Amino acid sequence: MATKSNIYKFDFDLNYTPIFNQSDYDIYTMCVNNDNEIIFNALRNNDGVVVIGIIDSKGNVDIIDDTFDKKITSLEFL
Q1: What is the distance between the alpha carbons of residues 44 and 56, in angstroms, rounded to a whole number?
Q2: Engineering a disulfide at 16: which of 8, 32, 60, 63 sits with its beta carbon 3.0 to 4.6 angstroms away?
Q3: How many other β-carbons are positioned within 10 Å of the β-carbon of residue 40?
Q4: How far apart are CA 69 and CA 43, in angstroms?
Q5: 8 Å CB contact between 51 and 65
Q6: Which residues, at least 6 apart from 67, have a Cβ–Cβ distance to it below 8 Å?
Q7: Cα–Cα distance between 72 and 23 in angstroms, integer?
Q8: CB 30 within 8 A of CB 4
Q9: How far apart are CA 54 and CA 66, in angstroms?
Q10: Residues in CB range of 61: below 8 A, 6 or more apart
Q11: Helix (H) or strand (E) holding 76
């Protein structure tokens, strides 16, 4: 689940854990895979660069591209 400022992970007992604070990014699109990894396309707020990143299940962020300057309309893990 995503709110205006956080992304949360839920389990089957409806317990939730915040895994990412969105204050650093304005997320345009995101997709979740079976390993609870999130790929996202966002505007990085501190420098105005459009990025593609991955958030792992523990909330660690890895920016995989910061040269793409377009909003992506759809993301899918392959």
Answers
A1: 18
A2: 8
A3: 24
A4: 9
A5: yes
A6: none
A7: 20
A8: no
A9: 12
A10: 20, 53, 54, 55
A11: none
What distance in Å separates the CA atoms of residue 70 and residue 78, rounded to the nearest whole number? 21
Pull the structure tokens for residue 77: 């893990």
- Which pLDDT tens digits describe the chain residue by residue (78 residues)? 555 566 777 777 887 777 676 678 888 888 888 888 888 999 998 999 999 999 888 888 899 999 877 777 666 665
Is the whole-model pTM more than 0.85? Answer: no
Give the separation between CA 40 and CA 45, rounded to whole angstroms: 14
